[in-house]
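During the no-cost extension, the postdoctoral fellow (Dr. R.K.) reprocessed legacy sequence entries with the updated structure-token encoder. One reprocessed record is reproduced below for audit purposes.
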Amino acid sequence: MEELYHYLWKTGIHGSDFKDVDGSEIEVIDPGIHNLDSGPDFFNSKLKINGVEWIGNVEIHIKASDWYKHGHDKDPAYDNVILHVVAVSDRRVARCDGTNIPQLIFTMPDKFYRTLSTLSEDIENVKCASMLSTVPELNKTDWLESLSIERMQQKALRVKNNLEAGNGDWEQTCFITLARGFGFGLNGDPFELLAKSIPLRILHHHSDNPFQLEAILFGNSGMLDATSHLFDDYFQGLCREYYFLARKYNLKPLRQGLWKYSRTRPQNFPHRRIAFLANSALGGFSLFSKMLESAKDAETMINLFDFKAEGYWENHYSFGSDPVNVAFELSRASKILLCINVGVPLLYSYASTIGNLELAERALSIMEELPAEKNSIISQWNVLGLEAKNASGSQALIHLRKEFCEKNKCMFCRFGHHYLRKSVN
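Re-encoded structure tokens follow.
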């Protein structure tokens, strides 16, 4: 509940002129800097109290007595508090030296709380849908551009964390990122675990043998169980090969039950995606080096993901399935998704790491050249009048839905803030 009062104080949508419990007139010139660490809630606030200007800190509590409950009366860090903002004034408070602190009772506007409650209901639809048309176009554009960068930075942080865990090996990090990309959301986590379970140097040793590459990857995925009574010659051959390689390199398969198949078309089964991942290591995995050398625009990056499912996988969806006609290479739409979720974040993260602004700009420009994604989230925003012109725009809309709408962070969303401000004005 306190965070609601923090929001009201920070945004000033409740006004700027008040009277404290003693009748002193208070004018908020600057609410200060919101402190998310220990210490007072707002630093360097600027107020006028009975016409005299004060600069100091502001502390906010639901009950005034929380000041003593939290031990602020004995903490010198709170001696520079110039105003105590409370919802319930159940007592007066003082600093360490015993001097009283001006106290302001903050009343939450009824309309604000009702509006926030409506926005915070279970998210089946966008709760602010009815007012999106009232948001100025410039505000929409600015917010979506910020969201696009925020999502890119979020992905770049995942890359950075994998890089640090892999002792700075960019090619290994690229392999892990590519594997996660092959999960296409549903199986992202098990694909990442699979890639992390196999040092890239082992795949390099067998990069001239597609059968052994598949044995290693399918074996570590946990899909090669020789006791499964699956009488498929290719499957049984992989089992025997993995048994030998696992003992040689001390490989350990993932636990059972990680892979998901619900609502997945057969051509998108993880078996085929693992086959594509094995193909990426054929001849030695060097995707990251190729991206740095040749990914100058969207089309050249798309072509870098031209992996194929060869041999057994040219006409199988999974082990033991009946032979069928199936596409043996990734669709263009899948390659574009890999550019969005793998290629561009890797380039952007690398550029950020080495401080190469030109490369970072190139990564962002590739996102603007790539077409917008097509999925249920984008379709819903389109219906509400927010249309993505390119991949940068669709990533912004996905980030808005996942990081704000679904997490009920309406107070931190510029659209939600616009709605809440209108509710009290």
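The longest helix spans residues 137-165. Residues 306 and 330 are 7 Å apart (CA to CA). The remaining legacy entries will be reprocessed before the final report is submitted.
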